[in-house]
Amino acid sequence: TERIQTDRLRERVAEDLRRARERSTLLTDAVDDDDLVRQHSRLMSPLVWDLAHIGNQEELWLVRDVGGRDPVRHDIDDLYDAFQHPRADRPSLPLLNPAEARGYVREVRDKVLDVLERSPLEGRPLVERAFAFGMIVQHEQQHDETMLATHQLRKGAPVLHAEPPPPAAPLPAREVLVPGGPFTMGTSAEPWALDNERPAFGVDLAPYWIDTVPVSNGDYLAFIDAGGYDDPRWWSESGWAHRMKASLSAPRFWERDGDRWVRTRFGVVEPVPLDEPVVHVCFHEAAAYAKWAGKRLPTEAEWEKAARWDPASGRSRRYPWGDDDPGPQHANLGQRHLRPAPVGAYPAGESPLGVRQLIGDVWEWCDSDFLPYPGFRAFPYKEYSEVFFRGDYKMLRGGSFGTDAAAVRGTFRNWDHPIRRQIFAGFRCARDAERP
Ligand code: AVJ
Ligand code: FE
């Protein structure tokens, strides 16, 4: 049976690797070579850097480390080391050109599939060896989401296309009460959970209310129309300083067109859809909206309890809907649609308490800093999480329409600077239960 399990694991890894590469190929074949090497924003790498960086990480971890093979390219590690070169500097590096980058990732992948075929995944090393493959799948998918954000920043005619997401379904309530008490946060069991999601530990929360859906564009427009951007009462000190310095007045990609708002999404201009979750807002904008609405952002623990806690058993589930892997009925993931679904969609994905769209649609800003859980151990390298535990990053939870199912879970933790808006981030609100 161990043999059968190992074969199944190999098939699953091969399929996840294939799906990730299909997406990377789609994102990089959609534009011409000129567009691939150009920098579309100083916040982002040229797409061709992401592509070769994906191959380089795969080479480092799977060809050399797991496989024990000779380097495919021994001379480019430094070029594709994210810590050596800030994104803004990457276009001026002597990067592999598009044809070379494509050839490189193909050569690495051929070797990796051979390593996967031959490595003994049985026994004690199973978890660790398979983990390196899972980590590399997640790494490629994370860069695919980054490349999708680069596409959103790119000017020009649309090159990406997808079906519209499913419609909203009736929503019994706008917020629900999450009872106080203990729940288990994080995981020691999820095989592909990254180091920062580990280990599982108990937290005891006071009762709180949480919105059953993310804040919509229509909701957010009411904040804009009420002069929310011009009233320092709603903003933290650092939030107001940033709002002034960056002249914020609406979500990124929104523009005034006469008496209405339009926004550009992947090259298509459209009236801002009022029923969709707001996206491309920074942490400060989310926190200001929440305060104006008489609420606050949930903490990371509150978000996770709403997403995982099962009141019937007291157990923490893998996902809001249970322990099954995400399917198209549960959540808007994997760039299957090129936008968030309207608020109230995916009733099959709701939590036992009736909270919807926690997974997929938009990343949700939480009012917590990126810090290690008690018992954290850096694994397999300090540069994935540990070097970012500096207190200047805010948490994002749940994934977006651009996040693949392989790279998000109820325990998954993402983080960014509180001023960032190019990511697919929105938010939902919470409030203390003691309030009248
Ligand atoms: C976890 C999404 C913040 O993109 O910077 C990619 C993931 N780490 N390559 C990022 C990551 C190394 C990371 N985030
Ligand atoms: Fe990376």
Automatic annotation (TrEMBL):
- Which residue stretches belong to region Disordered? 312-335
Q: What class of enzyme is it?
A: oxidoreductase
**Do you know which InterPro entries this protein is assigned to?**
CTDL_fold (IPR016187), DinB-like (IPR024775), DinB/YfiT-like (IPR034660), EgtB (IPR017806), EgtB_Actinobacteria (IPR032890), Sulfatase_Mod_Factor_Kinase (IPR051043), SUMF_dom (IPR005532), SUMF_sf (IPR042095)
Per the database record, which ranges form the Sulfatase-modifying factor enzyme-like domain? 174-431
Q: Which reaction does it catalyse?
A: gamma-L-glutamyl-L-cysteine + hercynine + O2 = gamma-L-glutamyl-hercynylcysteine S-oxide + H2O
| Cofactor list | Fe(2+)
Q: Could you tell me the EC number(s) of this protein? A: 1.14.99.50
A Pfam family matched in the record = FGE-sulfatase
Q: Which UniProt keywords apply?
A: Iron, Metal-binding, Monooxygenase, Oxidoreductase
**Position of the signal peptide:** none
- Associated pathway: Amino-acid biosynthesis; ergothioneine biosynthesis
Q: Which residues bind gamma-L-glutamyl-L-cysteine?
A: 87-90, 416, 420
Boundaries of every DinB-like domain copy: 17-147
Q: Where does Fe cation bind?
A: 53, 139, 143
Q: Could you tell me one molecular function GO term of this UniProt entry? A: iron ion binding
Family that this chain belongs to: Belongs to the EgtB family.
What is this protein's function per UniProt?
Catalyzes the oxidative sulfurization of hercynine (N-alpha,N-alpha,N-alpha-trimethyl-L-histidine) into hercynyl-gamma-L-glutamyl-L-cysteine sulfoxide, a step in the biosynthesis pathway of ergothioneine.
Tell me what this protein is called.
Answer: Hercynine oxygenase
